[in-house]
Amino acid sequence: MTRGADLLLDTLTWQEHRTPDAPAWAGVLPPGLERLVAYEGGALWLTRRLAELGIRPSEPFRTWLDKRAKDDLARNLMVEGAAVRVLAALRALEVPHVFLKGMAWRLRPAVPYAGARPLRDVDVLVPETRAREVWDALVAEGYTAVLPEGHGFVIAHHLPALFAPGGASVELHTSASHQGRAADSWNRVWPGAVPAELDGRETRVPAMTEMLWHAVEHAVHDGTEGFRLRRWLDVVVALRSEEPIRWPDVTARLGAGEIPAADAARAWLGAAAELAGREVPRAVLGSVAPFDLRRALRWRSAVLARRLPTGRIAIPLLEEGTREALGWPPSPSARGRPAYVRTRHRLAAAAARAWYRCWRAVRGR
User: Fold this and answer.
1) CB neighbours (10 Å) of residue 192?
2) What does the angle CA 98 – CA 141 – CA 101 come to, to the nearest 5 degrees?
3) Number of domains into which the chain is organized
4) For the whole prediction, is pTM greater than 0.90?
């Protein structure tokens, strides 16, 4: 079980003087490797990495991986189609804008592996004063809005999601960050945004420093979801690109508390640097050790290889293992649930942590 985790991590890590174990990929692969890759969301990344290294995995894993990667590519094309329609609306309204996150990476074809990220939706930053105008225009074109019950129209840093006729969702952001004022975020991102092209039309994407910062901030904000392999790809790509990163700005933002869980952000960024085979200035990371991604993958592989019932056992084990490794408290139960449900949740979290600690004591060193 640990062999599969190590094989995956060693293959995705850029190492100047080492190559992954090609014979291991060609032989009998560890059980549960497909489930680990699916959980981490790195099928397209792994496919391209194996091709770059000239490694051909054995069947049936190769067939499974090819299908998974093609599914990701199809989804990416669908999301890109939605982005083309959004761009047409923005240009018709003459609204300045900056594409964010996954779509912004897809619009950087010169950056290696930028297109290996699986896309879920279209994220685009617009001035707060124009956001509702764009939102209404997209609704008029057939986009469907789902307004969460009990919330105001503006949700945190973006308007309610819109669903395109083809199925992809669109989020109009008034801020690129979960913290601070929308106007401050726009004034930070827009002046340094760089030109890009989508469907033959000009648009803009953030500068590399902002791309890196958004990836770190959103990963930590998303809790354990942000500590899956696919979320590290953004910063790995940024670190391996030729574009400069303003590290003093990153250090200052971490020191100013722009990410409340700053030490988790530093640990996350340290793991990204190890994956990328690049150095991050010590002033950025301070005394915080990188998140132990190898141990995390070994734990997840051990859980997923057992084919445990997903909702009742596997998910709490995966969730609490990551939270325990980060020094975070147990996951909270959803508000409004009956007392017996909250009690059951606390007991499940405690049991999952006990199991994780036992595993670490025996195999997780």
Assistant:
1) 14
2) 25
3) 1
4) yes
